[in-house]
Design a protein that fits this description.
Blueprint (H helix, E strand, L loop, with lengths): L1 H19 L8 E2 L9 E3 L2 E3 L2 E4 L6 E7 L2 E5 L16 E5 L2 E4 L5 H8 L1 H11 L12 E5 L5 H4 L15 H15 L8 H9 L15 H4 L31 E7 L12 E3 H4 L9 E4 L15 E3 L2 H4 L21 E2 L3 E3 L6 H8 L4 H12 L3 E5 L4 H8 L1
Parallel strand pairs: 7-11, 10-14
Antiparallel strand pairs: 1-3, 2-3, 4-5, 5-8, 6-7, 8-15, 9-16, 10-12, 12-13
Helix pairs in contact: 1-10
Length: 391
């Protein structure tokens, strides 16, 4: 039964993404070279920065164009802090994409959390119902926080990075934005993240091999005063991205693997081919280091693996929440989004961007939905107008 549902989900997702790609998406592309600011020359013109309007709010997400190129994923054995999970180095080719200028903030994440009440109202009113046919368009929203004092321990300011959400929750956020905008918004792969963070550098940090300048670019244990900070308070990297070193760890698409890139050894692969697609909820990967980490853990190649047991130790739910962590380490966990220039419509990849095919995860999510401890609703271009009608 699980396998059959997976096949149906894949087929439906393929059809929907195919429709979204029928019309040329020119958002973020212009014909004339900009007089100032970052841009990337492409066949269609010039990729330029642009803003995504966050549904159900006045918040904006500024997206920065990142040129294509190659990256040596991982680190050499000679690099201080090198681990087996960062080896062997593998060459990955990267297509152009846009990446969020900053980590996703509370101001950009609150509107997603607020969809819980809206989706529940839709359900009560019998409108915009989720069916087997359109469920591929649906996103899940958890109930309000059971312990806001933990998640908001360091404040709720809209300019603070949103924290403590799981990898699955971050994926659902990107699916929500994708459905409303028609743009293929998702988490970055590890290779895309590392390439963007490096900003063209081939060193341990984008500014060199030694961490002396790290305080100019990021918040870490030596300067954070034991808390996350507002985004954009430090210098950007060469691509114009802020807080790629430190502040909060950032989710990527990949599963963490202690054996690193052994499966790719000796190959040159694309960013998609490099992804270690998750098969279990345990050991998802984060990049970039956080406010409570040493400089060495904020290197470009550094990575962190999640732990369901250790990060949900205080969760009173049964089953444990698929959307939130409850233990202190997660107060340094966040994410940022990307949008590829070329949409991927392969059924396997698109499904895994948003709804990883993980049996235990699917069971936990559906259990919580059936128990009324989550909301399910459609994320499509008609959603903003529907929201206005219920306000």
């Amino acid at each position: 039964m699980f396998a059959l549902r997976t096949i149906v989900l894949v087929l439906l997702m393929t059809a929907i993404w195919a429709r979204w790609t029928e019309a040329e998406d020119i958002v973020g592309i212009q014909s004339e070279q900009p007089a100032a600011g970052p841009f990337v020359k492409i066949e269609e013109g010039y990729m330029v920065p642009y803003e995504i309007a966050v549904p159900n709010s006045t918040a904006k997400l500024r997206m920065i164009p990142i040129p294509g190129g190659t990256v040596k994923l991982g680190s050499p054995e000679s690099e201080a802090g090198h681990t087996a999970a960062e080896a062997p180095e593998v060459t990955v080719t990267i297509d152009p994409f846009w990446m969020a200028e900053t980590e996703t903030t509370w101001g950009q994440y609150y509107p997603f959390m607020a969809m819980y009440d809206i989706f529940k109202k839709f359900d009560r009113d019998g409108v915009r119902g989720v069916t087997d046919t359109n469920r591929v368009h649906a996103v899940t929203i958890p109930t309000p926080l059971h312990d806001p004092g933990f998640t908001y321990k360091y404040g709720e300011n809209p300019q603070l990075p949103a924290i403590t959400m799981t990898n699955y929750a971050a994926r659902q956020y990107t699916k929500w934005l994708s459905g409303v905008t028609g743009q293929q918004i998702r988490l970055p792969s590890e290779a895309e993240w590392e390439y963007a963070a490096a900003g063209g550098a081939t060193t341990a940090y984008h500014f060199g091999n030694e961490p002396e300048k790290l305080a100019e670019y990021g918040w870490f244990v030596d300067n954070s005063e034991e808390r996350p900070h507002f985004v954009k308070e430090k210098k950007p990297n060469p691509f114009g991205l802020y807080d790629m070193h430190g502040n909060v760890w950032e989710w990527v698409l990949d599963q963490y693997d202690e054996e690193g890139y052994q499966r790719l050894a000796g190959k040159t692969v694309s960013a998609q081919q490099s992804v270690n697609w998750p098969t279990e909820v345990e050991s998802m990967m984060l990049k970039g280091g956080g406010w409570d980490d040493k400089a060495i853990d904020c290197r470009l190649a550094a990575k962190l693996e999640s732990s369901e047991e250790d990060w949900k130790g205080e969760d009173p739910n049964n089953p444990l929440s698929p959307w939130w962590y409850t233990d202190p380490i997660s107060t340094g966990v966040g994410f940022r989004i990307v949008r590829p220039l070329k949409k991927d419509v392969s059924p396997e990849a698109v499904t895994k961007f948003y709804d990883p095919v993980i049996e235990n995860l699917e069971f936990d999510v559906n259990f919580r939905l059936d128990d009324g401890r989550a909301a399910l609703g459609l994320a499509d271009p008609e959603l903003p107008a529907a929201i206005e009608q219920v306000k």
